[in-house]
């Protein structure tokens, strides 16, 4: 990788020429020379610099964005070359949407570390749209998501496990006394507690609304599943959630599944990648993921 880009990235990270020079074991004039050379090559100024700050201008933002991608691709290239002769090792940048990332991924990573102690996974949790974007920009090696995202032809999406989703309510909800299945249209006046736009769980909820032709007037929104479960448990509404997210609450009786006609709703967990090449570390992790016994055997109802 061009050392001028490395120096440029370090200056932006440290927001200071002196601190960047210290981190890179260079003199400050040497750092300044690298930045000047990069600006001469690009033909534009990249930084606004005063005695108090160093920050990117518009041209600098463009170079910074692409320099990050170049750095990631360069590291990936070196990993692939190392893999020609070495065992599974090195870093894996893994992204996961909230349901999979919070309730399934920790155990899988623990097993991966046990089987392949030399791999070094880092994890980013976000909604489906965010994770897909990070894979697209080469900031993640792999994403594990639920739901769909449109217009991203560069990404390869591979379903690998099924997820079932149920409507849950507080343990004392009156509808739990019903002996016959509840029709979805009977839930229209309930307060529905949903995830934010862009999440796979929100997409699933809207798919259920569309399938049964309902549009609940009372909605609440949260950016993760944990506060949604807390609100449902407190009797503030109902929600459609993954079976993986409610194991503990069902076991202790804090939440109950409503017997709703036409449910559970089924969706896929999918693996999202961009590069056709995989390091041994990534390949080993994906093999473990696709063949994980709990993902194929587990059912709550």
Automatic annotation (TrEMBL):
Pfam families: HTH_1, LysR_substrate
Name listed for the protein in its UniProt record: LysR family transcriptional regulator
SUPFAM superfamilies membership: Periplasmic binding protein-like II, Winged helix' DNA-binding domain
Family: Belongs to the LysR transcriptional regulatory family.
Species: Planococcus wigleyi
Membrane spanning stretches: none
Statement: the UniProt record of this protein carries the keyword DNA-binding: yes
Record keywords: DNA-binding, Transcription, Transcription regulation
